[in-house]
């Protein structure tokens, strides 16, 4: 039986992280085959119990669901998003500490509640990383390099009214950080600055580093555009044909050097930095890329990008 939101009791237990209740209800429907289970594990808008557990940030339960209902890992919601794609849009789940610097130190010295908050954040981080590893082992989206006219790619996730408050808050963060069109988990995680997901995908599938999105960009283009230095360094240290990556031109004719020169209007630094420091950072990016490009220069042919 479903409520007016199209949710079964099992679905709501996953949504609110009620693990004991979820296990009790899951045992009751365990006798159904995969087709029969869909009524209980999927909402009428195609969101599954795995989707909703991730949206609600109940990562321990999501991990359990992914193990017990492996067929849900590749299931897509109404917007064509898999569970790994949703997780790749949530950078806050991969932060180990709620705050940095003096404020964190001051609170940690005099507040038990704050210490508990920090520990909860660390626990959530560990759960998110373990979940990302499990989901990444089942991700093959990088195998397809979409053309610019491909219409089968998923849309950016837009949640309806019945998605609930937990979905709306995450949707807002996605809209702040993502372009108008959805991407593969590798590209989404790069945009979000989630090093853990990028590293795991590239560890499992090194060839995924040459994946090209619908705009003709590889992971280097995206890391540079979104100023994700850790991911940039991760890729450049890989034992891959770097010349091919560095020389890749996107559909607009932009090289990686062009990309660093593009001023993103929607880019807001997470740190409180003045104009002078931001300019220094931009110049550093140009310097790093120039050195990288120089390393691919062929003195015999005179080809430099």
From TrEMBL:
It comes from the Eukaryota. One of its GO terms (cellular component) is membrane. This is Ankyrin repeat family protein. It comes from Populus tomentosa (Chinese white poplar).
